[in-house]
Amino acid sequence: MADPSTYRPAPGSIPDAPGVYKFRDSTARVIYVGKAKSLRSRLNSYFADLAGLHPRTRQMVTTAASVEWTVVGTEVEALQLEYNWIKEFDPRFNVRYRDDKSYPVLAVTLHEEFPRPHVYRGPRKAGVRYFGPYSHAWAIRETLDLLLRVFPARTCSNGVFKRHAQIGRPCLLGYIEKCSAPCVGRVTADEHRQIVDDFCDFLAGRTDVMVRKLEREMSSAAEELEFERAARLRDDLDALRRAMEKQAVVLGDGTDADVVAFAHDELEAAVQVFHVRGGRVRGQRGWVIDKVEEMGVADLVEQFLSQFYGEQVDLAARTEGTDAAGSPVPKEVLVPELPPDAAAITEWLTGLRGSKVSLRVAQRGDKRALAETVTRNATEAFAQHKLRRAGDLTARSAALQELQELLGLDSAPLRIECVDISHIQGSDVVASMAVFEDGLPRKAEYRRFEIKEAASEGDVASIAEVIRRRFARYLKETKADAAPSAVDTETDTAQTEAAAGEPERPGIDPETGRPRKFAYPPNLLVVDGAGPQATAAADVLAELGITDVAVVGLAKRLEEVWPPAEEYPVILPRTSEALYLLQRVRDEAHRFAVRYHRQKRSKRMTSSALDGVPGLGEARKSALLKHFGSVRKLKQASVDEISAVPGVGKRTAETIVSALGNGTSSNGNSNGEGES
């Protein structure tokens, strides 16, 4: 635990001007980024009596080893620089309002020849249009089931689509007219895309246009005495209206707005956002976050707006936009309280959108009622979080403190890495490295290894190889980084860079601008295994001259904790928070290693039959397997069918047929030697 007085800037050296500041730990890694109207006033507040600081602030300043700052000209510049630094350095004490990947959305794959709507969870991709997020996947499926009657787009996976195209029969949805069956040619690609475009227009808010169109068609059919068609259109109208009822009008003036509300206590805060487009609630998001500093609602609003909309605009730029408006920033943002820098925030949001944005507090009418509804949702979500995860932050802190005491560490292990080996009887030997910080998984820093030299020598040798490779990279990257000192300057960013060029950024690769893979060492290294594995890992660290990383092994059978070169393990109580944390770290490493092992084994088993075929590289093998679906089907193909695959000529096709012993001749007729 560092003493903040050891790195406190000299009196009078901090400028009384707006700017952005960074706290770094002992490895020069950025752990917190903030901005201030007055750098002097804000930074001095961090060096007050520790007992009077917010708990998370106290943890941050005692973890830090230095502080530096950059002076800027305006508050808008400070806002932009703060957001850029948070995105670049990903400081662990800063809150990131990223999209919660658990929220389902309705995705439409517009980049495919025959686009399909489907329920989706995960990161956004280019060429796909998204609607939502929704609270529950069943809500999407229910809405989709209603709309397929009117917009019979295909919803099957690519594999199912290809299979039905091959057998020449549509699936059940095609027979009950909830799919236009493009797989069997009932509609052309252009006709199917028009169906999907109408579907997207309806979800994007053009509901009245579609309803009026169906009403006209129904009246026309009735006048022409086509009563069956009129009845079908009537049922389609009912389906549309039921779907519209699920997105009830909440603002009658067709407002496009985001409504934000908070519920919070001293340590945590819950935020809820309702996305209203065309007067209807189109989606909802929610987060529960740890508070790093003492913050009121106005401060929470400022932090949320700057990070959330910056993240959304970056995401939209990568995926070519996700809604009809083309910008994730709405015309109006309704908040419970205006932030301290409301004018700067409004100016920044206007720049992101490209047109005027209104930031205000709802005072009366429907907007005030909706804001109260969002507040009730935030309060309920916060209460559920407290019930579900009572004491979670306290438990993590207790686990780290307990590990420090039981293992005799100098400080709490804020960063824990765990290595696990996975194989089946010595084949396809791989390893994984899971990373936890502050008791939580940091999946972006997980790493996987293919065992090269020690694959045939057992788990102990494999552990040693992984540790040697991991920490050799760490030593190499540490030498590449020059640890920066605190910047005591009153010049702005442009002046600093003009004078000294691009500044050094520890842990960041100067060529790619991305974090180095192994730039930060753990406080505690856990290996999956008992004493021999732990001893092997410790011996490798000693060879490399690394003395500040503690090592233990965690044996699965009795969950014993083995220090290196010890005759007996450390037995932790079964109810111990420290043991629970070690188990979570070990289980994550095991899960990650098994997944990698399965990928390698599956790839080897799939392509092994093609490995010995002359003239077949990885690209051609991938193209063949993608085209035919499996090696078994490839064996049944003729020379003409194989040579039809892009990149495969007739001579290569003949070589494949000869090598695989295909049971068909070049004209596709059976030669009596088919596969049994």
From TrEMBL:
Keywords: Cytoplasm, DNA damage, DNA excision, DNA repair, Excision nuclease, SOS response
Cellular compartments annotated: Cytoplasm
Family annotation (InterPro entries): GIY-YIG_endonuc, GIY-YIG_endonuc_sf, GIY-YIG_UvrC_Cho, Hlx-hairpin-Hlx_DNA-bd_motif, RuvA_2-like, UVR_dom, UVR_dom_sf, UvrABC_protein_C
Pfam family, one: UvrC_RNaseH_dom
GIY-YIG domain ranges (all copies): 16-95
The keyword Cytoplasm is assigned to this record: yes
GO BP, sorted A to Z: nucleotide-excision repair; SOS response
A GO cellular component annotation in the UniProt record: cytoplasm
Residue ranges occupied by any UvrC family homology region profile domain in the UniProt entry: 259-541
Positions of the UniProt region annotated as Disordered: 482-515
Composition bias type Basic and acidic residues, residue spans: 502-514
Domain UVR: 208-243
Family matches, as PROSITE patterns: GIY_YIG (PS50164), UVR (PS50151), UVRC (PS50165)
Family affiliation: Belongs to the UvrC family.
PANTHER family assigned to the protein according to its UniProt record, in alphabetical order: UVRABC SYSTEM PROTEIN C (PTHR30562:SF1), UVRC/OXIDOREDUCTASE (PTHR30562)
Protein role: The UvrABC repair system catalyzes the recognition and processing of DNA lesions. UvrC both incises the 5' and 3' sides of the lesion. The N-terminal half is responsible for the 3' incision and the C-terminal half is responsible for the 5' incision.
Assembly: Interacts with UvrB in an incision complex.
Protein name (Swiss-Prot/TrEMBL): UvrABC system protein C
Organism: Tamaricihabitans halophyticus
Source lineage: Bacteria, Bacillati, Actinomycetota, Actinomycetes, Pseudonocardiales
